[in-house]
Automatic annotation (TrEMBL):
Keyword match Magnesium: no
Positions of transmembrane segments: 9-32
Protein purpose: Subunits I and II form the functional core of the enzyme complex. Electrons originating in cytochrome c are transferred via heme a and Cu(A) to the binuclear center formed by heme a3 and Cu(B).
Name by which UniProt lists this protein: Cytochrome aa3 subunit 2
Length: 167
């Protein structure tokens, strides 16, 4: 069998490309321990309240320091629990001053949901059995809609909320 000169070059380039790709992948996955936001911590989906972050009184937005917040969210079919106001009514709109750092922690007791504040970097999968976490800095004032972008059942489109970054 005879390989043309250029065929050999391209074959070689392909093999080198594959090796470089696998090295980068292995470095990111094993050496740096990169993993999806949804695999930071495990949780019992039947008893999410055993985790302090998801006790009813700790859901929603909490200021932990100057310019620092924690936002705990329970996604379930078909609702986002963003905490309650003083009268006990569910909060649907979260307000955060621009420039704040926010640690978002989310979980679900039932099926896979999405958690995306459209227009921000907050975009995670929420899986039963895991706590999804992500820390972001919110610098751009505006209103961002919270949507579920994993199809979770007949009420999928009913899952909503919003985040307002205020000056
Ligand atoms: Cu929850 Cu789609």
């Amino acid at each position: 069998m005879h390989l043309h000169k250029y065929e050999k070059y391209w074959l070689g380039a392909g093999i080198v490309g594959l090796i470089v790709f696998l090295i980068i992948l292995g470095f990111g996955a094993f050496y740096l321990g990169t993993h999806p936001q949804s695999h930071g911590e495990i949780i019992d989906p039947e008893n999410i309240e055993a985790n302090d972050a998801f006790k009813p009184e700790n859901r929603g937005l909490t200021k932990v320091d100057e310019g620092r917040y924690v936002l705990n969210i329970v996604a379930s079919a078909f609702n986002y629990d963003l905490g309650t106001d003083e009268s006990g009514a569910p909060i649907k709109n979260i307000e955060i001053p621009a420039g704040s750092k926010v640690l978002v922690q989310a979980t679900t007791p039932d099926v896979i949901h999405g958690l995306n504040f459209a227009g921000t970097n907050i975009n995670m999968m929420v899986e039963p059995g895991y706590v999804s976490t992500m820390e972001v800095e919110l610098n751009n004032p505006g209103e961002y809609t919270l949507v579920c972008n994993e199809y979770c059942g007949v009420g999928h489109h009913l899952m909503y909320g919003s985040l307002e970054v205020v000056e």
